[in-house]
Amino acid sequence: NCLIHFYKRKSMASDNLLQPPDKFKFPFPPYDIQEQFMTELFQVLEGGKLGIFESPTGTGKSLSLICGALTWFLESEKQKRIKLEELVNDKTVDDDDDDDWFAAAGKKQEYNQKRLEAKEELQRIKVKEEKLAKIKAKRSQLKQTDIEQNKDEFNELFKEVKWMQKAVQRELSQGAGDEDILVEEYFSDEEVDDDYEADEEDTSRRIFFCSRTHSQLSQFVREVKKSPFGSDVSLVSLASRAVMCVNPSVKKLSSQAAINEKCLELGKKKSKPTALDEDSNPTKKSKSGGCGCPYNKNTGTAVLRDQAILAIHDIEDLVAAGRKTQSCPYYASRSAVPLAQMVVLPYNTLLHAGTRKAIGLNLKNSIVIIDEAHNLLDTITNIHSVNISGAQLGLAYSQLAQYREKYSTRLKVIIVIINWTFSSFDSFV
């Protein structure tokens, strides 16, 4: 079962609706049931409707869902940009023949306001494209640097081997010579990347795909990779701290609540005493982007974020990359959301309002796809429920009984005061 909802999309005239293509992009010739699935999905998304889809096991539901949704999404984004550009460039206003100049002025003002909003929306699209282009250029430069660095390291290694061959016979008599120390190039955490600040309210259209388990999400991401849209869409995978944390001292904690608390504690900036110069004046504080967690550094997280946005990675890929680069996959994936076209996340992250607000997810103008939707009611119930066992109740009763026994004398005085207060209040009334 699959539930699809398009949030707050304005209704359009029927003659302006996009029509499903005669042939969907698919890894192989689709079956009739897959064609019907993608066609119905395309029409639901274009109409801004709520759709409930069910397909038998083994019919390629995930792949049909991916190809149908992304076919509509990319074509809709293309048409949206064309219409925005036409509206911005169109400076003509139809003048009515009547003498009502006040209504004409109001109509002109309304039209200019629409053009202004279209211009702002178009500017946001261009800014996002420029950010992606800048990230791609940076990554290409880093790749070229890595290649050149590997060549240099190989040459140095080759020279060292040749030197060792010549020196092996005299090593015992002359001893080992001093070696040159090569220091790797690094980026200071004081060099904070300010090019990608989050917008106040990001209302860009996205596809949010959520499922019950992380394994199902990883399987969906692999299907997107294999689809014809693997290189056309930017996808980000989100998960909890317990799943994405790579800090061993935090990862070993017993519960998810403890991991969350420890992560937030490490994320808080430590207060340091103000340093003074020779004249006893406060020195200028350096701009620092670091925090208590050695894995959550601005530079490393920014590099991992760029890596996450330029290619499709599932949760396991991001965690492995985080361990390799000693960067935080959790905060890297969160910071990549503003540049993503598709966000893959578990039920709880999307359905819990507090979590959604903390991450900065805005569902306005977006498409929400809920896989395995028959589990939805149970998930919502579990999110807003707390389980208390009999052992916990017994322990709470025991603690309260011990507290009463220890402080019974003091409690008697408090009870007398409370009773006197209520009796005085009753007599006053």
Task: Explain the overall architecture.
The chain is an alpha/beta fold and 429 residues long. Helices cover 56% and strands 6% of the residues. The chain contains 16 helices and six strands. Strands 2-1-6-3-5-4 form a six-stranded mixed sheet, with helices on both faces. The longest helix has 67 residues, at 101-167. The termini are far apart.
Brief overview, please?
The chain has 429 residues and is an alpha/beta fold. Helix content is 56%, strand content 6%.
Alpha carbon gyration radius: 30 Å
SSE order in H/E notation? Answer: EHEHHHEHEHHHHHHEHHEHHH
- The amount of beta strand, in percent, is 5-15%
Unreliable sequence segments: 10-14, 147-154, 157-161, 166-199, 270-278, 285-290
**Distance from first to last alpha carbon:** 62 Å
Secondary structure: number of strands: 6
Number of helices: 16
Q: What is the percent of helical residues?
A: 55-70%
Helix and strand composition category: alpha/beta
In this structure, how is the largest beta sheet organized? Answer: 6 strands, mixed
The average pLDDT value, as a whole number, equals 77
**Side-by-side strand order of the widest sheet:** 2-1-6-3-5-4
How does the overall form come out from the CA principal axes? globular
